[in-house]
């Protein structure tokens, strides 16, 4: 299997092999201008605790009016340039979120055709019309300085909803996990090759290295605590990337004028951004033979199409290990490392979502429609326990 066919790089993993496009060219730059204005104006959340001031409401409506007045642009040539398509989806998804999340909490959600139709027409990536993990993490980085080395410490975020340093730290924690995870993907590829050669010693060597890398991923993830305040994240950052709620379905203006879009339809579920949309973690599950779940399958819809195809084409080592007892110890060590990573993920979810949600509820400040984190913890605990259950008795 050649990962490059699936837009997976040996050096950067699921991140692009080159620095993502930083700004859209040509006529599409009008979307960048709208996004620049939204960020510069520090538009207020429509459903923020305590409500918005009259001035904030007026400023937000002025900006939304400018979005509605923006002409509908052709996106056909975007399909020919994958790096530009990535930036286009990011910008349109951020614009969509700014538009929706600045609306008064009781108003109907109608996505202007200037944003809604282009994001629905972007087919190259296969992403839904909502902010995804790919937008915030995979395609939202650059290197510090023109001559900076391609290294984790030189990664910076390109686009933020709030301009708060906490937001950049939060996104970059996942970007660095993806960057470090490239070695995990290479180890899995090497193990598959060694299996074809019946090289059990080589497999054990790479399994041991894979366990070490997963342990390092855990440390990278936990570093988010050093620069991102949980309450700032929950109350000021997270709401911008919320998805559609049952109470307030999104209506895409003028979709009835585009018969092909009507035929394809719009996903009924449009969830907010989640680390569960990371292809890296699901790749580890597939490789180790950790069974999937309905939640995992739903989250795959929010991954770039090439990455979904990569997961579907992956080889699993578990049956091979069951036939070769010499591999059991090294294989179990990788499972334990993955369980440890999931333990850390549960800690982060508890710290950044469950805890602030409980405090907000206690203080009666939680905005209507904002989901708590209890369900996420249950899902993560299930995945963690499922990973542990895959340990092979020796």
UniProtKB/TrEMBL annotation:
Please give the start and end residues of each transmembrane region: none
Asked whether the UniProt record includes Metal-binding among its keywords, one would answer yes
Listed A to Z, the keywords are: Iron, Metal-binding
The family assignment reads: Belongs to the indoleamine 2,3-dioxygenase family.
What's the name of the protein? Answer: Indoleamine 2,3-dioxygenase
Instruction: Tell me the organism.
Output: Marasmius crinis-equi
């Amino acid at each position: 299997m050649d990962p490059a066919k699936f837009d997976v790089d040996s050096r950067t993993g699921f991140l692009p092999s080159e620095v993502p496009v930083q700004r859209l060219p040509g006529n599409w730059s009008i979307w960048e201008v709208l996004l620049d204005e939204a960020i510069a104006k520090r538009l207020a959340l429509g459903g923020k605790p305590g409500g918005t001031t009259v001035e904030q409401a007026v400023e937000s409506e002025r900006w939304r009016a400018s979005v509605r007045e923006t002409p509908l642009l052709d996106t056909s040539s975007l399909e020919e340039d994958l790096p530009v398509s990535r930036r286009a989806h990011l910008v349109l998804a951020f614009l969509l979120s700014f538009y929706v999340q600045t609306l008064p909490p009781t108003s109907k959600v109608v996505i202007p055709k200037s944003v809604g139709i282009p994001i629905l027409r972007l087919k190259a990536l296969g992403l839904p019309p909502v902010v995804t993990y790919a937008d915030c993490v995979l395609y939202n980085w650059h290197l510090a300085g023109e001559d900076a080395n391609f290294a984790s410490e030189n990664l910076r975020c390109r686009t933020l909803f709030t301009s708060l340093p906490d937001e950049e730290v939060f996104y970059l924690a996942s970007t660095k996990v993806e960057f470090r995870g490239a070695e995990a993907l290479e180890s899995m590829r090497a193990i598959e090759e060694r299996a074809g050669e019946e090289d059990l010693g080589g497999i054990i060597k790479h399994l041991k290295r894979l366990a070490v890398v997963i342990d390092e991923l855990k440390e990278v993830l936990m570093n988010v605590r050093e620069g991102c305040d949980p309450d700032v994240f929950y109350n000021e950052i997270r709401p911008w990337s919320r998805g559609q709620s049952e109470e307030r379905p999104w209506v895409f203006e003028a979709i009835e004028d585009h018969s092909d879009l009507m035929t394809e339809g719009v996903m009924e579920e449009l969830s907010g951004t989640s680390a569960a949309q990371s292809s890296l973690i699901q790749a580890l599950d597939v490789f180790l033979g950790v069974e999937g779940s309905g939640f995992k399958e739903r989250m795959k819809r929010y991954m770039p199409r090439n990455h979904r195809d990569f997961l579907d084409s992956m080889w699993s080592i578990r049956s091979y290990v069951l036939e070769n007892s010499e591999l059991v110890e090294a294989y179990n060590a990788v499972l334990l490392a993955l369980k440890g990573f999931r333990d850390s993920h549960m800690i982060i979810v508890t710290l950044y979502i469950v805890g602030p949600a409980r405090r907000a509820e206690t203080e009666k400040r939680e905005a209507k429609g904002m989901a708590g984190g209890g369900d996420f913890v249950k899902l993560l605990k299930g995945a963690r326990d499922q990973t542990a259950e895959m340990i092979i008795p020796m």
